[in-house]
Specification:
single chain; 246 residues; alpha/beta; Rossmann fold; 3-stranded antiparallel sheet; globular
Length: 246
């Protein structure tokens, strides 16, 4: 039974809590992320999404609770870059370094060479800007470079924090198609965003956060009432004061 559960769920979180100076930024959050699906970790800025993601990856120590990847803490995964691709800060680049140079810095840890870098630059639409300094990149271009960095190890799982920030409509459409193709190929995606309207067109499953609490965790199709939009569902849940899993 345990083996079947681990195969079904890529991530399992139980009772994850984080307090900062007596204030609960994340309050007893529990959820699962299913293999081969796109899960949206959604809610307004300040809802606790980024703090939760950082706890998953061992960057912040939780006050309580556990997070497991395929049944293990992230720090115990063998060759984690080949299993989990992470994009937590789309703007964390050295401005004088080129896009290609940035990827080269992370390539050795991911176990890939120049051919993989060239392929990824083409895949994210940065082939023509690969040898320009990142300081001249737009916000959307930096988001694409961040995604390419996360993909270096050809991971099974992508964890992305606000990957649509700074993307124009064409870029949003590209991201939507890219992530759908990645999931169709067997990959799993957990992405956070405050852009509920856009995420409604991307995600399969929804985790809705508000003030550090998880309002619901369920498939998008089961959350929305007839002709309802995701923004309206979020307002309905917050006004009802619902907490925990649906």
């Amino acid at each position: 039974m345990k083996q079947v559960e681990e195969e079904k769920y890529v991530i399992s979180v139980r009772g994850l809590t984080k307090e900062f100076q007596g204030t609960r930024a994340v309050d007893s959050v529990s959820f699962d992320v299913a293999r081969g699906r796109i899960t949206g970790f959604l809610g307004p800025n300040g809802a606790g999404k980024t703090t939760t993601l950082r706890m998953l990856l061992g960057l912040i120590r939780p006050t309580e609770g556990t997070a497991r990847f395929w049944g293990r803490p992230y720090g115990e995964l063998p060759t984690p870059t080949r299993r989990v691709g992470v994009g937590l800060d789309g703007g964390a680049f050295l401005g004088g370094r080129t896009g290609r140079g940035h990827l080269r810095c992370y390539a050795r840890a991911a176990g890939c060479g120049p051919e993989r870098i060239a392929r990824l630059l083409a895949d994210v639409g940065l082939e023509g800007a690969a040898d320009r300094p990142v300081s001249g990149y737009s916000t959307g271009m930096k988001q694409r470079l961040s995604l390419a960095t996360a993909l270096l190890g050809d991971p099974e799982l992508l964890i992305l924090d606000e990957p649509s920030n700074g993307l124009d409509p064409e870029g949003m459409l590209w991201l939507r198609r890219f992530l759908r193709s990645y999931a169709a190929g067997g990959g799993t995606v957990l992405l956070s965003s405050h852009l509920l309207g856009e995420m409604e067109q991307i995600v399969d499953d929804v985790l809705l956060m508000h003030h550090g609490r998880l309002l619901c965790a369920q498939p998008l199709s089961g959350l929305l009432e007839t002709d309802e939009r995701l923004e309206s569902a979020f307002m309905r849940l917050t006004q009802a004061g619902i907490g925990g899993r649906a």
